[in-house]
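Contributing new records

If you add data, match the layout below exactly. Sequence lines come first and carry their own label; structure lines follow with theirs. Keep one chain per record. Anything else will be rejected by the validation script.
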Amino acid sequence: MQGKSMIVDTSLCTACRGCQVACKQWHGLPGTKTKQTGTYQNPPDLSADTYKLVRFAEGRKEDGKPYWHFFSDSCRHCLDPGCMAGDQNNSIVQDKRTGAVLYTQGTRKLNYRAVREGCPYNIPRQDPRSKVLCKCDMCIDRLRDNMVPACVQACPTGALHFGDRRRILHKVALRVVELKKHYPKARALNPQDVRVVYIVTDDPDTYFELAEA
């Protein structure tokens, strides 16, 4: 199944958080109380009310100059979703046309810990009120109306691209080649395993640390 895919090009991200706000607005999610934790990253983490979060790594230096890493964290929509291993009642499904991994209301009956531990990216969250599991749904309602995800529509720098998977993977390969001219460590993260493909310019562990913070 080819389906759809997205590029998240961290080299073009300015941490404006337009994607984060657009996601909340489109899904009708309430604002989340901010918290001073010594970083500009807010809210502190993903939650049932925050499906996309721009993570910040600050206070680092490169060639003696301050350097920040930004990482727009959300569900990767894996081709073989590990979270589905914790699903006993078919309440986590993959959309046949797009490949989007969708959580239904039936997830409230699942073992939340098992579902979350099955995700290699630590993405699923549980609504404390309804017990339904929550995450990015790739704006599946927009896709069915031939629109791009809200985060892609809102991105002002072109860091996010969306389209047919074959075309997106081709763009990923070309972009990595281009970036390597200036960033020798540039690479795409797990492009053959996920639909949301991140392009990074530094050691992958740096970005994984952000996602797991």
